[in-house]
Amino acid sequence: MTTRATRGTRRRTVVALAVILAVLSAFVFRLIDIQVVHADDNVAASLSKLGGSSPVPGARGDIVDEDGTVLASDAFVYDAQLDPKLIDEYEKQTDPKKKPKMPWAEASEKIAAIVGMTGDDVRKLVSDALAKDPNSQYAKLKNGLSTEKYLALRDLGLAYIANKARAIRVYPNGAVAGNIVGFLNGEGKAQYGIERMDQQCLAATNGSISYKRGQGGVRIPGSERIVGAVDGGTVKLTIDSDLNWYLQQMIAEQAQRLGAKAATATVVEVKTGKIRAAAEYPSVDPNNVNTVAPEYWRSHIFSDAYEPGSTFKAITAATVIDQGKATPLSTMTVRSREKFPNGTVINDAFPHPVYNYTLAGALIDSSNVGLSKFGTTVDQTTRADYLKRFGVSQKTAIGFPAEQSGSLPRGRDGKVLDPAKWDGATKYTTTFGQAFTVTPAQIAGAYQAIANDGKKIDLSLVESCTDADGTVHEATAPQSEQIIKPETAAAVRQMLENVAVQGGNAKTTKVDGYRIGLKTGTAQKTDGHGKYKNGVFFTSMVGIAPIEDPQYVVVVTLDEPTKMRSSAANAAAFQQAMTQVLKTYHVPPSSEPMGPLLPKFN
């Protein structure tokens, strides 16, 4: 028989068991939460207290020229520091067995000799640190030590010297193609040039070393976990650094001789669109960018947009011929100063009697009036389309940092105008390279198309990216487009050869043994408010060689030459540049004689 006391005992037992089970369930739940659900978080938290880690930096990739010459690479330097407290403890040590073999007085002299200081300077570093803090464990000795000096310090066997390695960016060829290569800032971030443009290829992926600590913070042997760093890839350029060096020296001399503020020389391979040289003055040395003003840190070949002037008269000639409106021998009656039906007055750069100019003659003499008459036989919308075909108002396919696109004619509000709404003056000035802007790179691209039978190939500057494991990623093949008929391009090349032979710069631009074609340009510079500066010009000269089998296009520009303000200022630099290009690439001399001279007048 169950008594009331027995039933009470059972109830208490059941309740106690329930409580115990609840407590056990809570512990189990918590255990699962700690060891399963939040295991990773808890391990990380424990390691933050009981463990440590240090980064393992990867090396940024190299930038090399077409032959593998290194233009940018990483090098390691060492920042040395001393432990003043440990030095002090050693000096106060009375146990001969624990006292270091080399006393501080002797050690400081040897350290000083290695790092380029005096013994007194080294000792003062330590004494000053201890004066501020008797427990100081840090005093900067010298930053940026070479590997040789690091090894010399290490070989001293002194426990109170620590050396921390860090990577720095070095540019072995200095300013050679410096505006193209670019540089890093003090924080290691890419600025300008290929350094910025190809950051994805060049950037390294850092690794790490993590470990556990025991009592007193001592690293536990065997607890290390290493995640290896992955070095950046190597960017191979289309540039020939030797040719670039020569052209930089040459244009610097010519710019200084002519009192120009800046100059460029660009070389493009006709059959591929590859840029083989991109020389600039002033040129930035990525090792020390402060040697030139910040405005010259970028590449002016890509970032200078200016009115091209007469170099684009060849594009007008190509447009007229391609549209079937004229041939090189078609004629126009041309005065040196002409008032057109809409009231616009156009002047030639030189006075002359009334000429019955051929199209070839107008190009040879660079007649503004003549090109205005020939050019306006094609409607404005069509002419604007041809300017676009030749690259005006479009950045190159390279996508270079700070690159400008140039622009078609704009209105007072700054917006690009509908060609049908060009004003009276713009209708004519666009035929001889005014009212729109281009970059030197765009001029090179336009003449590449003329040289390549009318097929325009996208310019390129990078050959490939090679990963640290050797995997090569070739650059995307450039796109090409037939922008004018092959026979049109041939006719324009013939006229350009006649410019080289019959033009005013024939003697100073002649390249012995080669047939060349060229065109000059003397462009007025605007003041930024729609008006031209008085007596201030941007001069250029662009040429193709050999004209019978085009291989290279060379563009030379001078910004505001003062001792000679016409494009004749560019003649000597162009001649030297083209000569060196043909020599560098072993282009055979012309084997075919020039055809009959085209008549300038009829």
UniProtKB/TrEMBL annotation:
Localization (cell): Membrane
- Domain Penicillin-binding protein transpeptidase, chain residue ranges per copy: 264-578
Q: Mostly located where? A: membrane
Q: Which keywords annotate this record?
A: Cell cycle, Cell division, Membrane
A GO term (biological process) for this protein?
A: cell division
Is this entry keyworded Cell division?
Answer: yes
Family under the similarity heading? Belongs to the transpeptidase family.
Q: What is this protein called?
A: Cell division protein FtsI
Q: Which organism is it from?
A: Microbacterium arabinogalactanolyticum
